[in-house]
Amino acid sequence: MELDYLATVLLSSLSSASILLIATIGLAVVFGLMGVINLAHGEFLMIGAYAALTATQYGIPFVIAIPIAIAVTMTIGAVVEVLIIRRLYGRLFDTMLATWGLSIAFYQLAVLIFGTVTPGIGMPQFNLRIGNYSLAGYPLLMIAVAAVATVFVYVLMTRTVYGMKARAAIQMPEMARAIGIESARVNTLTFAIGCGLAGFAGAVLLPIVPATPSMGFAFVIKAFLTVVVAGPVTLTGSALTAVGLGGGASVTASFLTSVAGDAFFFLITAFLLWLYPLGITAKWRTKM
Amino acid sequence: MFRIVNATGGYGKTVIIRDVSIAVDKAEIVALLGRNGVGKSTLMRFAMALIPALSGHVEIDGRNAPEAPAKRAKAGVGYVPQGRYVFPRMTVTENIGVAAETNGHSGRLAVETALREFPMLRPKADDLAGGLSGGQQQVLALARALATKPKILLLDEPTEGVQPSIIDEMAGILKRINRERGVAILVAEQDLDFCLSIATRAYVMEKGSVQLETDRESLRTDKKLQQQLLGV
């Protein structure tokens, strides 16, 4: 086996892991930080993809379509929090039921509005040559995007006043109010940010994963497993888990079959959860 | 300066406090005494607007206090709940910093002040608050409330589950804060000695109402009253 082939496999696996991480970050905020099991999370990703797709169809450049998708999903996220989620904090099963219903509604809306088949937008064409192999550049760019997005959320949640308020408000809403934090408003914003991150994922991954009404479903299972394996130190844990599980699965898939890759993902997940029932970061004494 | 007027409230339809009126003057330390379950904590929660008022209201400097807890905190009410309730997955520094920043003060300065005032928190500054001992959490909850720069501090059973050496330290700190910054304090307690060491005046509650208002001297000398009301 040549070195250039190995480098190709490693790079494309890291890129798959990054794609998983991009799709997971929003969930790390909504589920990891806020403890809300949002079963409609994948649909927010889908909404982001369609928002970006629609924007490009109106002739808006792709780079501007991404912030539009974020704005759209954040707005819908805020409305969903005010109408549904805020009544259900701490009620795990009720939240699951409500957001499951929501995901069905969003899915059907997408089918009605866009149909089940939609055109992709074509990948920005640039390639990377390694020895005899050529890799598409855009998926590789996702490695950098995932890194930047992770650092952005980390800094937002740990280094800013908003981030401290967000964690205080969700950890102890009543006590947070008693020191002057408008907990309800802060929680709406945090949920909206989580949805906006999902929208960002849908939009930025659009050239790789075309928008379809059911696209959220493909992401949400692995994303949820990643966050669950990550445990209480959500962001760092998710990054580690995404690289380990997603990357490992992708390496396995390149040498064997894609089925073997998925089998690797789910087997290692089960093994890790058996070893660390509360997530791999359960004993870490750090905050994000 | 701080007045609770005809407070009636409870949880759902259950009324726990009835028609309670309490006043705390500027820079005064007042104790709220009574056995378990007489409504001290409920009155504190009423004062912080954490339970809805069935009737009655709260005044700060002669004006009606805002109805929302967050706004009431910003109006100058600091609250240290029974059971501490520090933010567990935030560091000691963040617990103090977020309280200061939320009220428009510098978080960095507030943390410096707090670590100077409470040296026992210094080695724990970067630890998660959830990992501190009970006494340390109590001190942190106090430091957090002070970081909001309150005019009045509501302390709900600050000595509960705290070792005696820290209780003494806390009494000293409260007296100093009261003297140096002019912060008024209303402290709900069962620990009579602690109250006698810091408060100049006391209300005694029984069955959801104020039964008696008294000063330190009569409370200290009236053994019969102590026996009857507190079982000490």
UniProtKB/TrEMBL annotation, chain A:
The chain crosses the membrane at residues 20-40, 60-85, 97-117, 137-157, 189-209, 263-282. The keyword Repeat does not apply. Pfam families: BPD_transp_2. Keywords: Amino-acid transport, Cell membrane, Membrane, Transmembrane, Transmembrane helix, Transport. It is a multi-pass membrane protein. It comes from the Bacteria. InterPro entries: ABC_transp_permease (IPR001851), BCAA_transport_permease (IPR052157). It is found in: Cell membrane. Belongs to the binding-protein-dependent transport system permease family. LivHM subfamily. This is Branched-chain amino acid ABC transporter permease. It comes from Bradyrhizobium jicamae.
TrEMBL record, chain B:
Signal peptide: none annotated. It comes from the Bacteria. SUPFAM superfamilies: P-loop containing nucleoside triphosphate hydrolases. Residues 2-232 form the ABC transporter domain. GO terms for molecular function: ATP binding. The keyword Heme does not apply. CDD domains: ABC_TM1139_LivF_branched (cd03224). Keywords: Amino-acid transport, ATP-binding, Nucleotide-binding, Transport. InterPro entries: AAA+_ATPase, ABC_transporter-like_ATP-bd, ABC_transporter-like_CS, BCAA_Transport_ATP-bd_LivF, P-loop_NTPase. Pfam families: ABC_tran. The keyword NAD does not apply. Belongs to the ABC transporter superfamily. Involved in beta-(1-->2)glucan export. Transmembrane domains (TMD) form a pore in the inner membrane and the ATP-binding domain (NBD) is responsible for energy generation. This is ABC transporter ATP-binding protein. It comes from Bradyrhizobium jicamae. The lineage of its organism: Bacteria, Pseudomonadati, Pseudomonadota, Alphaproteobacteria, Hyphomicrobiales.
